Amino acid sequence: MPLTSEQLRAARALLRWEQKDVAEASKVSLPSIKRLEGKPGVLGAQDRTVDAIRSALEAGGVEFIPENGGGAGVRLAKPSGVSRATPDEMKASATEVRLQAASAADEAMSDMDATKQEKAERRGALTGEPVMVEKARDKGRAPK
Known about the structure:
The protein is mainly alpha-helical and 144 residues long. It has 2 domains: 5-80, 434 Repressor (Amino-terminal Domain) (Orthogonal Bundle); 89-127. Helix content is 53%, strand content 6%. It contains 6 helices and 2 strands. The protein has helices at 5-15, 19-26, 30-38, 47-60, 87-109, 116-127; strands at 62-65, 73-76. The protein is elongated.
């Protein structure tokens, strides 16, 4: 289900979150949140970015409503007896998930016949971690 800038702003309002709270909870940069909210309609971002924003807001306590004749929307989720997570709690949870993904990626690639650089790139693609790229100039492979 696509997420719109209107739903994003409405979800923030329901949670009484500022843009920086969404950025911290979703690990999406504040300038990206501002840019996405500023353009009407479906968010123009990669799927993983939209998923991170949606997950952060849902963890905060909102529910996105699909377009079912009345239009897409957002509402507070029914309380399930569990308190809503704060942005700091969601940040800690996201960090834990990334560490688990990194560990799983390392384990999956341990038997692969690949260079350290290739493994780092694959791990980065799976976990969203930055990839440390070898300096090609130092290896004599790039023009000066």
